[in-house]
Amino acid sequence: MPVQRVKCPTCQREIDWAQSPFRPFCSERCRLIDLGAWLTEKHAIPGEPAPDELGQGNPGVQDSDTPPQRRPS
Ligand SMILES: [Zn+2]
Hints:
29% of the residues lie in helices and 8% in strands.
């Protein structure tokens, strides 16, 4: 059975898929880094819309994979 190698999304280091308990990351540290980046970029303030986005009224800025959920005022 060939060894399946994947690149860690955080540091691009090649890892052995079957041997890494933190796959697809090379280590717990990289996993936490990626998780932290994801939280920072996508969910800066969970459950609370950013004041800047509300004030500018520019829907083109929104990410396509995260549809805005705003209540009509
Ligand atoms: Zn890594």
